[in-house]
Design brief:
Shape: globular
Radius of gyration: 23 Å
Number of strands: 0
Oligomer: single chain
Number of helices: 12
């Protein structure tokens, strides 16, 4: 199925994803070396204050310990399990994404249909072979089911699944994998009842960012420019990019071929994507969209921090303690 990952979007959307997913990068709507005020908090929450080398070293150490704990747990459950070695290079950033570079946008648009590195083959030296595959294949079908339930927990029931296919993760029902991860990381303090109110406030803040007067006015200016360029109907800058992803998702949902949608249909969408992205870029430049959006967003975040500083500092301290 086609991936529906927005590589860059309006800060309101990115901010919410940033919080819920625990990303550590800067806001794609701001300069690469500048993180928003709230972004600074969440960077500390999730280890973004570590260097790339420190993050890599921590990942490898945690992964090695997790695999060893999983092997111990699976043995207790009556199965064999050989720890899988880490594949390494997890924090490689790959090719630079340049949504404000005209040459880049002229080639890739929003990066929906085609994007840098899509045709690159994985390095064989970076590919990890599962040392447990031969053992699993030697088991009967019922034994394999029991093996994977012991390793990852039972498959969520229909009642536990949401409409989009997601479900609420619980380490206690996630088998040996969940147990091992919890042994290393413990409970996530950001998911505790103690910080539920401020987390709700943060999510509501990002969801409502687009309604800030300065941002709403900026979107009106941008939309007026787009209308003049022959692209009416977009209420906000993020709507332009999302319209391409919506179209792609519709194409994939209608696809019945094992090889994916018709290549000519994909090429047609990509051609229109590039044209739309270039018009979007022109209007962002004409309205000074990025700089003005950043100024309004940063000002609003600074006010939010002032209003919730006690709770945010407590969350930061709890997260840092959990990581130590």
């Amino acid at each position: 199925m086609h991936r529906n990952t927005l590589r860059w979007a309006a800060p309101a959307v990115v901010g919410l994803v940033f919080i819920l997913a625990g990303c550590t990068g800067g806001d794609p709507a701001t300069p690469d070396d500048e993180i928003s005020p709230l972004g600074e908090y969440f960077s500390a929450f999730y280890g973004g204050d570590l260097s790339e080398e420190e993050q890599q070293a921590k990942f490898e150490a945690d992964d090695k310990q997790r695999e060893e704990l999983m092997a111990q747990c699976m043995q207790d459950e009556g199965f064999e399990y050989i720890p899988v070695p880490t594949s390494g290079a997890v924090f490689s950033s790959g090719e630079e994404w340049k949504p404000d570079d005209r040459e880049f946008v002229s080639q890739w648009g929003y990066g929906a249909v085609e994007y840098p590195g899509a045709d690159e083959q994985p390095d064989p030296e970076q590919t990890t072979t599962d040392p447990n595959s031969e053992y699993v294949m030697s088991l009967s079908e019922s034994e394999q089911t029991a093996y994977y339930e012991a390793l990852y927990g039972p498959t969520p029931s229909e009642d536990e699944m949401s409409e989009d296919g997601s479900y609420e993760y619980n380490w206690e029902t996630a088998g040996c994998s969940g147990w091992a991860s919890h042994e290393i990381s413990g409970d996530d303090p950001l998911q505790s009842d103690e910080f539920a109110d401020v987390m709700d406030a943060i999510n509501a803040f990002y969801e409502n960012s687009a309604t800030l007067p300065a941002i709403a006015e900026l979107d009106r200016e941008w939309a007026s420019c787009m209308d003049g360029a022959g692209y009416p109907g977009f209420a906000s800058q993020a709507d332009a990019q999302n319209s391409i992803y919506d179209e792609l998702n519709a194409l994939w949902s209608e696809n019945t071929s094992e090889t994916g949608p018709d290549e000519a249909a994909m090429d047609e969408i990509h051609e229109r994507e590039v044209e739309l992205a270039l018009a979007d870029l022109d209007c962002r430049e004409e309205t000074d969209y990025r700089a003005k959006y950043q100024d309004a967003q940063f000002e609003a975040e600074e006010q939010f921090i002032a209003d919730h500083k006690t709770e945010l500092d407590a969350m930061k301290a709890a997260a840092e303690q959990a990581r130590s």
